[in-house]
Amino acid sequence: MSEPGFTPDEMMTIAASRALKNDDVCFVGIGAPSAACNVARLTHAPDITLIYESGTIGTAPDVLPLSIGDGELCDTAVTTVSVPEMFRYWLQGGRITIGFLGAAQLDRFGNINTTVIGDYQAPKTRLPGGGGAPEIAAASGEIFITMKQSLRGMVEKIDFYTSFGHGDGGDHRERLGIDTKGPTMLITDLAIWRPEPESNEFAVVSLHPGVSRDDVQANCGWTVKFADNIEETPPPTDLELQTLRDLKARTKAAH
Amino acid sequence: MSEPGFTPDEMMTIAASRALKNDDVCFVGIGAPSAACNVARLTHAPDITLIYESGTIGTAPDVLPLSIGDGELCDTAVTTVSVPEMFRYWLQGGRITIGFLGAAQLDRFGNINTTVIGDYQAPKTRLPGGGGAPEIAAASGEIFITMKQSLRGMVEKIDFYTSFGHGDGGDHRERLGIDTKGPTMLITDLAIWRPEPESNEFAVVSLHPGVSRDDVQANCGWTVKFADNIEETPPPTDLELQTLRDLKARTKAAH
Amino acid sequence: MATFQSLPDAVSENLHDGDTVAFEGFTHLIPHAAAHEVIRQGITDLTVVRMTPDVIYDQLIGVGLVKKMIFSYAGNPGVGLLRRMRDAVEKGWPRTLELEEHSHAAMANAYEAGAAGLPLAVLRGYRGVDYSKVNDNIKSITCPFSGETLAAVPSVQPDVTFIHAQKADRKGNVLIEGILGVQKEAVLAARRSVVTVEEIVDDLDAHPNACLLPHWTVTAICTVPGGAHPSYAHGYYVRDNANYIAWDRISSDRDTFLAWMDEHVINATPQEFAGRVEELRTQA
Amino acid sequence: MATFQSLPDAVSENLHDGDTVAFEGFTHLIPHAAAHEVIRQGITDLTVVRMTPDVIYDQLIGVGLVKKMIFSYAGNPGVGLLRRMRDAVEKGWPRTLELEEHSHAAMANAYEAGAAGLPLAVLRGYRGVDYSKVNDNIKSITCPFSGETLAAVPSVQPDVTFIHAQKADRKGNVLIEGILGVQKEAVLAARRSVVTVEEIVDDLDAHPNACLLPHWTVTAICTVPGGAHPSYAHGYYVRDNANYIAWDRISSDRDTFLAWMDEHVINATPQEFAGRVEELRTQA
Fold it and tell me: Is residue A1 part of a domain?
């Protein structure tokens, strides 16, 4: 790759931010999702509603929070509710249009593991667990997943179903009585993926600038499907890049 | 009866107020209960916690509210919560020591009807219904009932079980899995009644000044039981009477 | 996204014949102006829901717009019975009225469950009482951990909820303060919602944990000063207790009732509410 | 009725070996000082409950006081994994740790149900995931109205809940503002509760609908300024993010961890927390 003037991480965040609309109500996790949501808010989606599971509704933080419960989120929120209310009225109540999730392990159907690597009872690595993710994955209108690609992370079979994506594919969600769309987009540092119509298996629909099909396959543990017409992700605009970098700079200065 | 210097209604309210302790947490209904609770607060129980089902906790109204949701209750409350929270965390949560109930119809076991006179489907009189009473009766530590005696009100058999007292008597509550005490006191305009130990049937334990056994029976639709040692209710003290009359005067001026 | 519009438009666009509708308010903030607009538009065959149906439900029932009522306490608070509702239940005038009767605890839980998107509410309730004999919507579940039998009722999820609130900001975020009742739950449980407010302000100046409905949870907002009268709006005007007491007499006779409705509702407008609370503002 | 007392007294009187205990706080208002006092007193064989066990649970586990943990997310927020907890789960050091793992939604509902005096919480949850394969306390009920199968979990009702709050008044009424977490529920669900506060004031100056615990719902109140550090107290001091980041290194090695605990916990006092937040106050 030549020097593109931006990092794969920046491309991932900006590509994710573009998928958000002005009238979306987003359940935001920490890390890449938080950056993407706030870049969207600071560029093309000024009225987007950002919700963090700590109970803050309609936040507009000036710096990215280190945790989902930083004071900045409450200070800038339209309102802050208790955590039981957040999960009952707001998430389970079906008010979230987009849930943003990350993954330690991900499979081709968008199922996510953030619980353990290895056997649950005698794990190789004990991860933090699901937190809000199991019900975010089921109750949000649709799910966007962001993660950096790696052979360790994108696997043939995940060790624990922390969040249900499309299960074994096809209409598996429907068969379980889950009436939301599930993962509709996977944004990695290399590409944008969407589930194929029938199978619901993720296929690459757009490669980030300078990324080849081989790059994607080399960093994915399953045999990658590519859509018929693959686009190139438009590179970050100056505004997008500047917005993201300013946000990160303010964040670094603050923490 | 000679002129006692107070009305039967005043005696009833003051007798009820005396049954309340400084550390009680009372669920207060409108009418006589509200007056009794506030007289208690203004005399011997200054720290009593009064809760109205509108969500106001720890109220100290200067005048008696006309409804359970008057603004005065919120203005003087320690805090005001939503009605679902009131019924979930505060009543069902088992935090109420005394629930105060009135009755349109009452039987000898403290079962209450405030729903209909006559058949439910074709009632002679459609009453307001139970409101909070069914669960107040079951979830409060104990229940005090206040009512003016009448043949129409104190009946052999109530037309509808709106609130469960001691059912058919004896251990009926226990058999239904209700682990609170139920009605432990009935305060009328003529007497104080308490359930007898085994049967849980109300028996007169104290006659108000100037009231005879015949007076009580003449205004009660079942054959009245009298305890072995009947006391005379001490007449209202000057402080009690003045406190109640001041409260009523302030209330009248305000509404 | 909240639309700012007139009350007549909000009512006609959101409420239809045969709908299930809640006008909530717990003594405080009862949406009288909205109910009167519904009466003027003659929207009928309604299933009306409310914990504490009082004067406005007496009025809706009395003019014959109500098919069924789901409720837990039907009285004129602190005054007495609802005479128009009694006339419908006892004499079928002006039409028969189907009742689905609950306790407050069950109704409060049913609204809560509706807001939470659940089909049922579970509570420790209805023990030893007769409600389930006259209401098929009272069932039970068994706790798989303790074995305890608990009451279950269907959640309340109205087609439309009407509430009155103190204020909204220019984006449409709505603030409720004081006695909250079940209004937040009633709005979140409903498919559509219409909120009348005392005023629109630049900044709600709200406590971080205040009871607030974000603009995207509300369908329509209508500015109707005094719109809760004879109920009250904390911080704006006090309760018109005399009016509630007078209702007992007005509602006691069919003709008196109909004449009163003609004068004060049918031939009136939402704008008149402001004048009705004028003298009650000073005490707030 | 709340008793005002020292933190050492409140801990020794209320928490006993073998108890189930929650130290709640959702990033905000985490009761660090209380947990450190428990560690100093060596109260052991605890079942610890928390939605988001973080540094203090890592510390309690690392010194061997914890038998079982009921939780939904065990991480150092924004930083990474909990290394002492991992060591216990993966290597059994210093003792094995039993886990009862839930999702946030289930835990939040379980606290809510505990506060509501119910034996179970019902939610639409756990669909398609593996939790119930490793946790026998995830069951289901069937809605008798819709036929829908819903998840059921036992309510959380700890022997003792510890929380940190901004302030209490002289009667013992406690005020929490900002990010509320599940603290109110955790206190109301518990048999006993200990609340550390930044200060005692004459008047809470609280909004009518603020999150407030009346004095008769709280067992003990202890004034411990800075008692949430390195967590924060909205309006008093900000989060010490550097401290959380440093924990990742301190906790990565058993000896480093033990030495740090000796210096900062075992040989420290609740009074030292005030000094730790001194420089963080200016940013609040």
Answer: no
Instruction: Give tens-digit pLDDT for B159-198.
Output: 999 999 999 999 999 999 999 999 999 999 999 999 999 9
C207: contact with D, CB 8 A cutoff: yes
Is A48 within 8 Å of chain C by CB? no
Task: Using alpha carbons, list the distances in angstroms from residue C117 to A92, C140, D86, D121.
Answer: 6, 19, 36, 14
Q: Which two tokens stand for residue B5?
A: 């210097």
Digit-coded pLDDT (tens) for B93-143: 999 999 999 999 999 999 999 999 999 999 999 999 999 999 999 999 999
CATH code of the domain containing B246: 3.40.1080.10
Mark yes or no for CB contact A93/C115 under 8 Å. yes
The pLDDT assigned to D78 comes to 81
Task: Look up the domain containing B109 and give its range.
Answer: 8-254
**E strand or H helix that includes residue B230:** strand B225-232
Judged against a pLDDT cut of 80, whether residue B154 lies above it is answered with yes
Nearest residue in A to C210, CA atom: A79
| CATH code, residues D3-102+157-281 | 3.40.1080.10
Question: Measured between CB atoms, does B185 come within 8 Å of chain D?
Answer: no
For tokens 């729903």, the residue is B115
In a domain, B87, yes or no: yes
The pTM score is 0.97
Give the minimum alpha-carbon distance from B135 to chain D in angstroms, rounded to a whole number.
13
Looking at residue D280, what DSSP letter applies?
G
Pick among B87, B88, B124, B175 to test the C interface (most C CBs inside 10 A): B87
User: Residue C1's closest chain A neighbor by CA?
Assistant: A23
Query: CA-to-CA distance for A170 and A147, rounded, in angstroms?
Result: 23
For chain C, say whether B50 makes contact (Cβ under 8 Å).
no
Q: Is B53 a catalytic residue?
A: yes
Kindly report, residue by residue over C146-180, the tens digit of the pLDDT.
999 999 999 999 999 999 999 999 999 999 999 99
C-alpha to C-alpha distance for D227 and D237, rounded to whole angstroms? 11
> What local confidence, expressed as pLDDT, does residue B71 receive?
86
C81 pairs with which residues across the strands?
C75
Report domain extents, chain D: 3-102+157-281, 115-154
- Res C92 pLDDT > 80: yes
The distance of B159 to chain C (nearest Cα, Å) reads: 10
Q: Crossing angle of helices D32-41/D55-62, nearest 10°?
A: 10
Q: Which tens digits make up the pLDDT trace of C189-226?
A: 999 999 999 999 999 999 999 999 999 999 999 999 99
Are D90 and A82 spatial neighbours (Cβ–Cβ below 8 Å)? no
Residues B3, B10, B53, B240: which is the catalytic one? B53
Question: What gap in Å lies between CA D275 and CA D283, rounded to an integer?
Answer: 15
Q: Do C214 and A49 touch (CB under 8 A)?
A: yes
pLDDT at C106 over 70: yes
Half-sphere exposure of A221 (CA within 13 A, CB side): 16
Whether residue A78 and residue C173 make contact (CB cut-off 8 A), yes or no, is: yes
Mean of per-residue pLDDT scores for chain B: 95
Q: What type of residue is C162?
A: F
Asked whether the beta carbons of D53 and D22 are under 8 A apart, the reply is no
A139 closest CA partner among D150, C143, D25, D186: D150
Is A138 within 8 Å of D73 when comparing Cβ atoms?
Answer: no
Residues of C contacting chain A (CB within 8 angstroms): 1, 112, 115-118, 173, 185, 188, 206, 208-210, 212, 214, 216-217
Query: Which residue reads 């829901």 in tokens?
Result: C49
Q: Which residues of chain D have pLDDT under 50?
A: none
Q: Is residue B2 part of a domain?
A: no
Is it the case that residue B1 has pLDDT exceeding 60? Answer: no
Q: Write down the catalytic residue from A10, A53, A72, A240.
A: A53
Q: How confident is the model at residue A1 (pLDDT cuts 50, 70, 90)?
A: very low
Nearest residue on chain D to C206, judged by CA atoms?
D207
What is the Cα–Cα distance from B37 to B7, expressed in whole angstroms? 18
